[in-house]
Structures are given as C-alpha cells and as structure tokens.
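quick one before i forget lol
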Amino acid sequence: MLAGSVGSCLLAVLGLLLLCMALSTDYWLVAYGPKLTVHSGLWQVCLADGCHTPSPIADYIQATRAFLILASLATAVSILSLLVSITSCIRSPLSPSLLAALMAFAAGGCTLIAMAVFCAESWHKNQDGQIQLTFEWSFYLGWAALPLLALSGICALVTHKSRVGYEQV
C-alpha cells in the first residue's frame, strides 16, 4: 500500500515538473526560415532581436494555457492528497488515495485537451513553402506529462482499492 502511494506521488511530482516546464518555456513551435529562426511558446515569441508578447493572443493559446494551468493545479492537489495518504496524519471521510486518483485523472484530461487544442490549431499553420514549422521540446514535455499523470492515477486507485477493508467500515 505504501509503495503504491509513494510511486503514485513520484509519478505525479514528475508530471507536475513536466507540466510546469512546458508551460514556462518558449519552444513549442520553431520556424526555420532561409534567413532566421523563430521560436514561440504559450507566453511569448522570440526573434533574433529578442522575445516579445504578441498583442492579440490567439484563442487556442489562451485555451491551452488555461487547461495546462488547471492540470497543474489538479496535479498539485493530487500530490498533497498522496502526501496525506502516506503520512496518515489526517482522517477524512473521503480516502486521500481516491481523491489523488480523481485529481490525477482530471489533470490528465485537462492536459489531453490542452495538447489536442494546440496540436489541432498549429498543425496547418505554416502557409509558406520556404519555412519549416516544427513542434519542439516544450510541446513534447506537455505530451510526456500525460502518461505520467495517468499512471499516477492508476497507482493511486490501486492503492485505494487495496485499502478497502476493515478500516473503511
């Protein structure tokens, strides 16, 4: 039981780190042109002369930001619930492992929505044949967080199911 909670907590912490790195870095898309390279993230676009925030922020960027922030918050709640589950310092009517599993699955769902929206809107963005537009490592960090959150939720759910017994009565 303890191993499941600790494993789930480690997976959730790693997922949260990846989500925070994906949110804060500027390498979601990189445009390789004949004269310069431009990279952009959810918060700013970086050219050769420096980075700036675009004035009209696209709706899909705002949606991606919002869902990744919600995913990060849900992951943080999952981690706190798992820590409560591990230390057993608080008794509540709701199992901390069950709450952690629900929050991990909610975080995974929010991450999936955010990444799918960004991917769908960015897929055919390039209209110029001389520019190569590619998804970069910040984008892939967001996708990498998804299986970690799902595994964390599964481990927390298995831990909850294994604790159902006399102490739950």
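fyi Helices lie at 2-24, 59-87, 96-122, 137-163.
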